[in-house]
Amino acid sequence: MKYLKICLLTILLFLFTSLKVDAYEACTNSEMERLKELAKNVEFKPSYEIGYVDEDNKSVEVNYKVEIINFNSDLRIEYTSKYEEEGTIKSDTKEINNLADGDKITFKIYSYTTNLCTDEILRTVSIELPKVNDYYYFNKEKCNDNKEFKYCKEFMDTDNVEFEDIDKEFEEYLNPNINEIINKLDKKVFIYIGIGVGVIIAGVVVFVILKKKKKEDL
Predict the structure, then answer these.
(1) Cα distance between residue 155 and residue 165, in whole Å
(2) Which of 7, 50, 102, 205 is 20 to 30 A from residue 189's alpha carbon, by CA?
């Protein structure tokens, strides 16, 4: 009798374990589609704030953060950057802070479930954190009045350009000489003028030939 009970308990334990394993291993197409849809809805929203401002060297330190929107608990994210930062985040993390401008972050979204659909890569997203233009920051007033000037963009890498050189170009931009004005004119204008002059000359030649022929006929 005791032996029979042991056998029955062993069989029940085996069945229970088998059911549990089957439930864990289940990964259907519909489940994968659901997870992919969750990953598709995840958004990465970058924003920045100015940190340290170096007035003497005319430079600013920028701190980026990336807000993670629609991050579901059935997902996890691994990220790397070109500055060799990396990490793994779960759904209780809503944002990543202290990222540098000029960096490029690559996010890989994985499934994070209790079945065999877990740890499957679902989506890869890369975002660039553009360099904030130091020249623009220190010259906002005149840049806002001259937005077409090439160094008057909020996001631009000017680390290797001296402010003095940019100021010289700015003066030339505000006070161009006649040669620069001509160079900036659309080449098509000169083409059209050339065509027009050619047509006029051809018309005059034809008129003269016809008039001469008419006199000869008389």
Answers:
(1) 19
(2) 205
Neighbour count for residue 75 (Cβ, 10 Å): 23
CB neighbour list of residue 7: distance below 8 Å, 6 or more residues apart: none
Residue 20 binned pLDDT confidence (cut-offs 50, 70, 90): very low
User: What was the pLDDT predicted at 184?
Assistant: 59
What's the predicted TM-score (pTM) here? 0.66
- C-alpha distances (whole Å) from 151 to each of 20, 55, 178 are 64, 19, 22
* Residue range 26-32: mean pLDDT, rounded: 92
* Short-list 131, 138, 182, CA closest to 158: 131
AA letter at 54: D
For 98, the token pair is: 């202290």
pLDDT tens-digit readout, 41-93: 999 999 999 988 999 888 899 999 999 999 999 999 999 998 877 889 888 88
- Are 108 and 36 in contact by the 8 Å Cβ rule? The answer is no
